[in-house]
Amino acid sequence: MADIKKLEKELWEAADNLRANSKLTSQQYCMPVLGLIFLRYAWGRFKTVDAQIKESRAHATGRQVPIEAADYTKRGAMFLPEEARYDYLLNLPENETNIGKRVNDAMTALERQNPQLAGVLPRTYTDLGSDLLRETLRIFNNPALDEDGDDIIGRIYEYFLGKFAPAVASDDGVFFTPKSLVRMIMNVIEPSHGTMLDPACGSGGMFVSASDYIREHGGNPIESMTFYGQEKVEYNAKLCLMNMAVHGMNGKIKSGDEANTFYSDAHSLDGSCDFVAANPPFNVDKVKSEDAIAAGRMPLGVSSINKKGEFSNGNYLWINYFYSYLNKTGRAGFVMASSATDSSGKDRGLRETLVKTGHVDTMLYVGNNFFYTKSLPCTLWFFDKGKPEELRDKVLFIDVQNYHTVIDTTHNEWSPWQLKNLSAIVWLYRGQTEKYSELLDEYCAEIRDASEAIDDEDAKKALASVTSLGDFPAAHEALASFIEKRKEQVKKTVDAAKPRERKLLRESLAEEISQLEERLTVIDEVLWLTEKFGAGTYADVPGLCKIATQKEIEEKNWSLTPGAHVGVPPQEDDGVDFHERMGEIHVKLKQLQAESNELMDTIFLNFEELGL
Known about the structure:
single chain, 23 helices
């Protein structure tokens, strides 16, 4: 994964240099800079897919048809005409005096090749000096932009907005949706075909993740899925179209006043969607009730209206919309402020109506620090109008506020294996035990593959022989033991090295230990899963998950807060006698108090001797 913070810093420094040496305002230089990032990212994906196409053709026999643009789009990339390729611009002759025109021409060529980008890409590069633009092109030639599977454009876009105009970046609760949350939504709603809507689509991360999910499961999103989006902020809508295009996707995206979801069903999709996925702005106020009610899509009822004739909180408007847009078998997954699961007043009545439909599928509570620029908890809501009859009376509640990977002090995420584990809980709830079994097989294969990098015979044998559930504990013990042994060897090796060689040697060996610990983490994750669900039998786990009936939800006053249903995990007995330990603490406290009194007496005596 790209070091996104380092990448942001480097790209921002380039953009800030561009601003300092031009006469452009923030609004004027924001899109040109993002356009260059888009061009660079598009080229990275193009290079990867181009190599794949040529590799597959190298092994083909018989007559071959010419390579076409469609060969790139079906692999998730955009075909780039030669004059629109980043390396072409990067390698322009030093005596080229109008690089701005060349970049403008590149954007024009892309719009010709991709009609959905018409009028979207910036073409104001002649306003920038050639020398400065050339240097910016070089700085943006960063290998991290070749990373696949990450909505890098969306993340960098939000970061840049935060630098360009802080008021815009946080307007109305709008912020970038972290990749692991988006992926979790896809894992639960399982997009495959038909119509998908995101009525608050931002930079298009939901669409990109849905497309990735479909490809990973053997489908072709270009042929099987139609993507619709609404986004009232023009800049965001342009980024969405750019993001989709760079992944070889098409979408019908509307923006501006006609795309304000509170007042418009811009695509006339009410009751027609197979899938809805969104991260809407939370807690929006001042929504004009008369106009919103006239726009319809409120099958659950109308939430509270204040004396000014406004909805003072738009959360249940969004929940209404997501439910209303679904067809008879549709699924929805969305991010929502955690307060919405237990809000009172009319919201409770709407929630009761919703639960009684039998279409609430899963509620998943997410802890703090998942959002990129905000430190707030949220809940993932999932609807399924096609739930089987035996599940209509039930809702799966999951609380994973303490289950995540810490990236840094302000940022958590779910690792790919953690995402698989959370998905496995949903599979077992749905009775999809075959998927759970396939995941265990995947774990076994991953652990066996890890044995190839182990040079300790005992650890190698333990990992290579993993074939079933019972083999995981022994593999964990063997690998953990080997890592500790290897750490001791590393310390001795570094200490014995010449001083000038120690730094490089320490870094090299530290990387080796890090890779071993990553492999141990894989076994940690499968143990986390199998200690709770064994070979594939669902069970309520206190503090983690519970399948609650509608009657149980009613007893909780129609609360959909996962924590209210899953309870708290059992406390492990640490083997310490409480009363004995409290006695020890009391004795120690009296001792410290006596020492404190003696110290104070000494200090006052010293003051007296000094005449103070």
